[in-house]
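Dear colleague,

Thank you for sharing your sequence with our group. We've completed the structure prediction you requested, and as agreed, I am returning the results in plain text so they can be pasted directly into your records. Please verify that the sequence below matches your submission; if there's any discrepancy, let me know and we will rerun it promptly.
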Amino acid sequence: MEFISSELSLYCDNHTSDEDPLLKKITRETQLKVLKPRMLSGQLQGKMLEILTKMINPKLILEIGTYTGYSAICMARGLSKSGKLITIDINDELETMVRGFFKESGLQEQIDYRLGNALDILPELEGPFDMVFIDADKINNEKYFDLLIDKMTTGSVLMVDNVLWSGKVLSESDQKIDKDTKAIIDFNAKINNDPRVENVLLPVRDGIMIARKL
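Please find the predicted structure tokens below.
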């Protein structure tokens, strides 16, 4: 996921508002106890999510892919007191840890943490969603989008993580790419050609697609 030099990456971190003790604790505990800690949003992306939330001022946020709760807390911090965040994850083994972090954040009343398959849960949610962040299994990005687009308000923002997939999206031959890479390539093309949204793909960490519903 290193698309810029380590020196420039460090410079960006050093000129981004620092993590507070809770976010540092989540980072440390995730690295010590959880498989694939690179999935954590981290300082740069987390602060970006928080600031975007404050700018958008959403009433209802949906997150698909809670992991250890870092990104959910960052977005919840940007909510007004009347705002709410629904976050979905399929891994119930992390539940105790995640609920503990949410309680420490003081935002547990605004965070609706649901466990299960997002494809089963999404049809039950009414919305409308003002902001959506997808950071889950890449093979289902298109399905998530199709289930959500009609539940998003005009002007609402969709963000999808890992859309550069460590640069694998540049693969030219279908025979050389895995299913996840193919799914991400197809998803990026779908968003770029959908007349219902305007979009920008940013090379932040592993790439983040931002689309605004028209």
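Summary note from our side: DSSP finds eight helices and seven strands in the chain.

Kind regards,
the structure core
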